[in-house]
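Hello again,

I reread your note about wanting to compare the complex against the isolated chains. To keep things tidy I'm splitting this into two emails, and this first one only covers the full assembly. Below are the input lines as submitted, including protein chains and any nucleic acid or small-molecule components. They are followed by the predicted structure of everything together. The single-chain runs will come separately.
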Amino acid sequence: MSTLEITGLHVSVAAEGGAKEILKGVDLTVRSGETHAIMGPNGSGKSTLAYAIAGHPKYEITAGSVTLDGQDILAMTVDERARAGLFLAMQYPVEVPGVSMANFLRSAATAVRGEAPKLRTWVKEVKGAMNDLDIDPDFAERSVNEGFSGGEKKRHEVLQLSLLQPKFAVLDETDSGLDVDALRVVSEGVNRYRAGGDVGVLLITHYTRILQHIRPDVVHVFAGGKVVSTGGAELADELERNGYARFTSAGAETPAGV
Amino acid sequence: MSVPNNAPEVAGLAPELAGAKEGQGSKPLASASERFTSYDVEAFEVPGGREENWRFTPMRRLRGLHDGSAAFDGKITYAVTPVDGVTVETVSRDDSRIGEGGVPADRVAAAAWSAFTEATVVTLDGTPAPVTVSVTGPGAGATAVGHLQLRTTPFAEATVVVEQRGSGALADNLEVVLADSSRLTVVVTEEWADDAVHVGAQHFAVGRDAVLRATSVSLGGDLVRITPTVKYRGPGGDAELAGLGFADAGQHLEQRLLVDHAVPHCTSNVIYKNALQGVDGMPDARTVWIGDVLIRAAAEGTSTFELNRNLVLTQHARADSVPNLEIETGEIAGAGHASATGRFDDEQLFYLQSRGIPEDVARRLVVRGFFGEILTRVTVPELRERLEAAIEAELAVTGS
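Full-complex prediction:
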């Protein structure tokens, strides 16, 4: 049983004319076994939350804390956070020319598991995971994300998720740019990960469509750099009908991070 | 080609570039086919650094190799491990075989040619085991010239490793003469001490149906400038030149290649990769790659490709890359070139780290992947392992 706890998180980015505050006091607690959806309009700071948790150097934490089972995540380097059990599936996975997917996956598994996986079982494991996600085995020899289509990149993010088995996964708009079939394949991958262990998921999305495949336990509406409403899965249904207008116009501050 | 002579003058350009910026210079840029060559140092003007073939080289760091002020009173030693099928001779400069590989095309190569008194000739016959030629510089503060010739007999299949180490400033010529239908794999390493300056001309003469697999590895030295030239002596020749360089802060690594296709049905493939790693507060890490391929009118059926990749690992680094392809006949099998310089950036590092991979491992992963396709061409396992370790050690120097 693990807990990811975000308390009073304020985050800024460098912008013309000084730092610009994007997150304005986020409070959120995710326990293993739970799936939380974070929904919000563009520019509400959803992705900033994801990158800040993962430790991207562009984002400066100005106040608040993020802990994983009481450990201060913010004091850790990016790779230490990953080894502690955090995973960020990125909206725009980065191309790393010259490094093969196979080599990358093995290096990541070695780092996260603390020892190099046994070669024979590892090859089998990767093959099985690729097969589950309808990934052609040839991709193992290609450079990391290089020349991959948007859908291929997302599948590979979920492939890493399934191999690294983090305690908490933050999925940043993993559904964006996917066609119906790819969305199903990717969602099934996430559901296998959820079923495979005592893990927690923070699912960031703009659309409700992925929530028909991955049922959330809790839905948070994000606007103006913080959580403005929290409810059950039914809140997503309401957003589906009425959109975000109620949260952006009434009460919420101006959208940030545009 | 005649062009209307109404292009406005562009101030500050060398005379032969007049009007070039408008793309219609009255005197076209010199073709690689018009490259001047001579064995005699005095036939070359002392370069000032603005000439096309010297413009990237820091002339002040050449220790006078180019202007006659180097005394050349040091000595380069050549040591060859004895192997069956390999003959090692020390010959005088008037030996008839000397010069078979090619002719110097710049003043430093000509200076070395004009000054050497004896040459080492290594003849490879049959299918000898891999041979290592250990070249040692003249020592710190000294200058020296050298001359080495590697030659195969017809149908020979051989591998030669030329390992270059030590201190001092050296100008030399390396002739590699492939007899008809022979196959030579040659690896030349620049593993000099930090003070060393090496300006080396490499002359490859590829016989009919001969196969050359050359790999250049530049790691050490303060300034290393290598100018390989490939010529074919008969049809059917196949030359592959691979290279890797790792430039540290303050290091200047320069590779200037010319593949001269003058006979039909020959193949060339050039693939050079450089990594650069500078340090804040130190002079830039620097690489220069010039790849000229010339397909003359007679060279029908030529197939050629050249590629340069540079990986900038840090700030304070500069990579220049100039591929040139001149084609004088349309009857070729294929010709192409590609060049790209990329940065190992914060986003890539973040991505790898976000999967648990520590920064130093991430950097190694990227560099190892980058150089992998060159190092796989080094077929001598102990050498490949040693070079891999040397590259990892280079990475660890700044570690950042």
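For quick reference: Chain B touches chain A through 22 residues (CB under 8 Å).

B.
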